[in-house]
Amino acid sequence: MMYEKRIVAFIDILGFKALLDETVDKNGKDNEKAIDSVVSAYEAIRDIWDLNKKPDYLDTKSSETKKVSIFSDCLVVSFEINQSSEVFFTLLEIKWLIMRLISRKILCRGAVSLGKFIHTDNYLFGPALVEAYTLESKAAMYPRVILDHTVIEAGANNDSLEHSFNQQQQYVESLLEQDSDGMFYIDYFFKAQSELNDPEYDFPEYIENLADVIRKGLMGSSHHSKADVRVKYSWMRERFNKMVSIVTNKEAIGRLNNSGEYELADFYRELKQISPKKYNKSMHRIR
Asked: What is the DSSP letter of 24?
């Protein structure tokens, strides 16, 4: 057996132990609602990567080379590097996963790498998985799925017949943002809008849900003993606030008013950024 050159995504569901702790109460009785929440998270993953049914946008060979393995709180997705447009579609599927988990108040973190890897129904191993795992655990840091430019270039080099290198690179980059540390990550803030069933009308609900996750995370990590957790939600707050500044500018609201979308205009007019000071009470008390 020889290694294959594959794109490998390693994704970790954050806070999974806490989710499992909630499935059993202090008396040892099953918490059916909490168990259903965990099952729902797994179903969200399987719904996206149901490999028994080939997605319309993938050719047969591409579908055959893609492998998905789920174990406990981790997920590995890989495919042969020469598959046409597969980098774009897999990043898009990961974006769907992030958004679906957020709707369930669950966050994830991960990394995408490329290199030598063997992925079958029975086992998975190789340097590419080690690199993806290392990036996820050491570099991702925040609730984000990261990748470097080599993955983007691989996607552009293995484009479909209809797209040029530059076009395919633009398609891949349309799903991403470059962070302050130079890493690219899949944007599930402002760029999430285009993946909703009704982007214009579903986005406000998505924004409110995302804000609720961030506020609860900041509130739950306000004590200095949870500073490491707070850093993650502070990162989310900064990107959320950047998104809010885009959707609430006068020009955007003006366009909604001019098109008769008065309720949407009112929603964005009243939408506020998440204050960096509001959830700092415990931190202030120890100074």
From this structure: B
